[in-house]
Amino acid sequence: MTQPADSSSPADADALRTLLRHQASTVTVVTAPGAPAVGFTATSFTSVSLEPPIVSFCLNLGSSSWPTVSRSRYVGVHLLARQQQELARTFATSGIDRFAAPTRWRTGPEQVPLLEDTLAFLLCRVVDRVTVGDHAIVLAEPELLRHADVGSPLLYHRGRYAGLAEHVEPPARRAA
Questions:
Q1: What's the pTM value of the predicted model, to 2 decimals?
Q2: For the Flavin reductase like domain, which residue ranges apply (predicted)?
Q3: Which of 7, 31, 44, 67 would bridge 76 by S-S if both were Cys, CB 3.0 to 4.6 A apart?
Q4: For 30-39, b where at least 16 C-beta lie within 10 A, e where not — what string?
Q5: Per-residue pLDDT tens for 56-109?
Q6: Contact indicator for 133, 61 with CB cutoff of 8 Å
């Protein structure tokens, strides 16, 4: 595999941020109960373990959501559908009531705010928080899951929201 001659740079925060924009990520919204409830858009959600089932997401320690998430026993993780770009933008915007209309949500088990019409959601019990640099890695065990049988995820790539191209089956090979 060859590398372009101009692709190397010192591995500082700006260079890492630029590089990571090349990685397409599923867009999620994490919610936590509180007074008031909090929620934020995240692209750092991942599966950590299947036995036991553990997932993770990362959150900046300076985030307005961190104080609530740092104390929450439960969180909701919502995988957004391709058409939910506006919902992703709402939960990525600071200084607004993210749960105000037109956001559609309800209070779920353990008082966790659950967003309506997402591609999937997980109600998770937080099992650990690990501080690394300016972020916390939140490890959580899913206790309740729901997912749609149709639809495609909203992705984030190169600073923009994107979706998957429609799947096209390759033409059948002809017998020789």
A1: 0.83
A2: 20-163
A3: 31
A4: bbbbeeebbb
A5: 999 999 999 999 999 999 999 999 999 999 999 999 999 999 999 999 999 999
A6: no
